[in-house]
Amino acid sequence: MAELGVAREVGLALRAHRRERGQSQRAYAAARRLSREMLARVEVDAGAASLETVRALLEGTGYEVAVVPVGVDRPLPQWDDTDLRARTRSGSRFPAHRTVRGTDGPLWWWYHEYLGSRPYRKPPDWTAEGFTPPEGTRYGKRPRPREEGEGPRWPY
Q1: Rounded Cα distance, 147 and 136, in Å
Q2: pLDDT digits (tens, 9 = 90+) for 110-133
């Protein structure tokens, strides 16, 4: 656990608290009156943040920064395995509010790359497929209206 470093453990603590609340970065940042950009930076590496900022960010999460004498055993938090190992194909972490699981190929991979016309690549080891967004969540643009006579859209 010592190899993680304090800066990374602060980010993991914030992600763990956000996961408990089931919130996206945007919703969590709004609830805590933070900017989403600052939260994203600190979740990746809190090393650039001041100690006072880190203390304020951890307030109310159930975690705190502590200085302990060398050689004293301290209880080590159990970080979620998906925060430590699971990565998307681009190398980023999955959102903390989504359930991530190991896989032999998510549904989209089977449609697009195994059965479809995209070039074949090894199936991802992890997926967050099957996520149902919380009520009232909006993502990007509104979907375009279906054209008359248009067949079903992906994935069916």
Answers
A1: 26
A2: 777 777 777 777 888 888 877 666
